[in-house]
Amino acid sequence: MAYYLHEAITKVLQDSGNVPMTIEAIADAIRQRGLYVKKIGSQVSPWNVGLRAVSDVSKSTAPLFEVLIRLR
Prior knowledge:
The protein has helices at about 5-15, 25-35, 45-55.
């Protein structure tokens, strides 16, 4: 089943018990499970996941994702 990107991110997080995950791990899980493919046919990248999560915060509605930033 194909999802919108925000739905695929949500599914991966819910299925993992909503534990914090890196954008790389989320993108890997989405690709492995075939949850989302971009309209141009390419696979989702960590950049796509991160951009979607951050853009969600800038909307006027309540954000779906909690975005945390820290130094490595």
